[in-house]
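From the shared-data thread, chain only:
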Amino acid sequence: MSECCTADRCFRKLSREAPASLAELRSLVGVTALGLDMETLALLGTQFDDALITTRNESALISGRGGYAPFQTTAMPFRISSRRVSLRLDPGAPLSLSRSTLSSAARLPGSLVAAGVTGTIHHRVQFVKEYDERVALSLDPASSCPPAGVEPEDTAANVIPLNAVRQARLHWDRNDAGMHLNEIMRMQGRVRRQNLPYLGGNRAWRVLPAVLPSLLTYLKDRKRAFVRMVPSGGVLQAQTGSIETIATLGNFWIVGCGRSMFSMDLNAVKEVWVTASALHWQLELYDMDQRCFAAMAADPWSAPTEWRELLTSLPRLN
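Structure, as tokens:
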């Protein structure tokens, strides 16, 4: 498989080798629990200069080189940077920080990781340069670890939350991009997915999943900039720009853009939805468990009408 981003030598580690859980990480390197929350990292991360920043879920991964864009939570409007790594954070997400040491034997750089209550690593910062490692070492462990959070309960797939449907219908067209993204961050979009069939055919509709390879190829060939996003565990990482390279391994697609990359397993795609409101249109990818594992939206510096026309042209699933 060819390299997707010549500036980043860690793609193989990120997609295949980087430990997916704290238990796996501890088996390879030294790990210190910091007892700090994700907001601490989001604020500290604005000082990073050239770190490798990654968010991953079961089916998609997104990474970028640099430091965090300005601090952003789900209470703020969605903003994306063209130069820094954009991270949107749910302050109530049950995530805790740990710091790992460098291991030449395991071929793993030092890192800061954010893990959920089950130990799954949702977000990771790997140190490429000594400066960023010194910034990370400035974090002192808390004197006492906060009590473990509780992950939100799943909503049964066959139970339709009627009040959620009413609220979605009421606020749909008034919601800005940030509010729509908040819904795919919570429980990875399960409740949002249950609402979509009841919003009306002009607000949400399914398109053929088989169109995704052609869509990505079209965007690359036309050099069309767009935003791609990956939610996981109460964080959402986003990047924008046009696709420079595409590499595939079976149905595993990796697209590169400068110092960032976005990859996903197209075998995991069960449903693809176009969601359209007065203020925001996006393409949402769901797996067989009705979890949104990736989303795509218009580049904020491009004409939004072109993005809407593109989504409208995708073949609907009757």
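The chain has nine helices and 16 strands.
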